[in-house]
TrEMBL record:
Name of the protein in question: DUF2000 domain-containing protein
Top-level taxon: Bacteria
Record Pfam families: DUF2000
Length: 136
């Protein structure tokens, strides 16, 4: 099935494995919150056990160094795409309000990005992530 939109998550490649998973999870939750229509129906197995609904389209995960991550953020913003973000400072906080505070304390050009997420038309996402490789 071909979707009109793409969901992309870009994660910095020099993170610890647990950090990469944490960042990708938080960033996917931002997509779900901002685009509730991308959430599918709840799941149920053959025994009747109920499960939570999931985002109903693929999420493409890219790897990037600091410079490429900043470039992808700039490309998203210049194309009118509002991204989710995760900064290195957020690893040292314990709750959502503190996360917002550490982001607010730094100008955009000084953000120590470790990940961004976005959902937009396929061609727009392709231009934003141009040159990035899928995360390995």
């Amino acid at each position: 099935m071909q979707f009109d939109t793409k969901i992309a998550v870009v994660v910095r490649t020099d993170l610890e494995p647990w950090q990469k998973l944490n960042v990708a999870s938080f960033l996917a939750s931002g997509i779900a919150a901002a685009f509730p229509a991308c959430i599918g129906d709840p799941y149920e197995d053959g025994s009747g056990t109920k499960y939570l609904p999931l985002i109903g389209q693929p999420i493409l995960i890219y790897g990037a160094d600091r410079a490429a991550l900043s470039r992808a953020l700039d490309r998203a913003l210049t194309r009118g795409v509002t991204p989710g973000l995760y900064t290195e400072d957020m690893f040292r906080t314990a709750h959502d309000a503190a996360n917002r505070e550490v982001v607010k304390a730094v100008s955009r050009t000084e953000l120590n990005l470790v990940g961004i997420s976005m959902r937009a038309e396929r061609k727009v996402i392709d231009k934003i992530v141009d040159g990035l490789k899928f995360h390995s």
